[in-house]
Amino acid sequence: MSASPAPHDPSEISEIIQRNMHLEGPLLPILHDVQAAFGYVPDAARAPIAEALNITEAELHGVISFYHDFRRKPAGARVLKICRAEACQAMGANEMSEALLAKLGLGWNETAPDGGLTVEPIYCLGLCACGPAAMIDGKVKGRVTAEALAAEVAR
């Protein structure tokens, strides 16, 4: 999902928190809803979430950084996720990724200067027999090459 930075309306953040407080273990649903609203989990949401759940901001940071789907800044208009799991690595994903990132001039979790593309690692897309695998704009692709992904990105 991509979104441009939205104003971080404290009332919207508060509403998201309150909407999920009745749940057992509301932290992940809150984070998912915040990211859905803003395209990422903005720093402005951290203190209210931590306070509402009676956890430290360090604990909250640990959860956000542990789950790879949570973003700390907005993603590009298109998102390319490349599998980094062992099966894909065995099929050449590391070499393919290095070649593609060099061709794109990006690193992991970086967004192109024009905001058009973000490249992220993902740890298993379920295409282990068809590695290396990637997902672009939510569409999963198997047996990818750096050239094919570069062409897909260029479209």
TrEMBL record:
<dbReference type="Pfam" id="PF01257">
    <property type="entry name" value="2Fe-2S_thioredx"/>
</dbReference>
<dbReference type="GO" id="GO:0016491">
    <property type="term" value="F:oxidoreductase activity"/>
</dbReference>
<dbReference type="InterPro" id="IPR002023">
    <property type="entry name" value="NuoE-like"/>
</dbReference>
<protein>
    <submittedName>
        <fullName>Formate dehydrogenase subunit gamma</fullName>
    </submittedName>
</protein>
<dbReference type="InterPro" id="IPR028431">
    <property type="entry name" value="NADP_DH_HndA-like"/>
</dbReference>
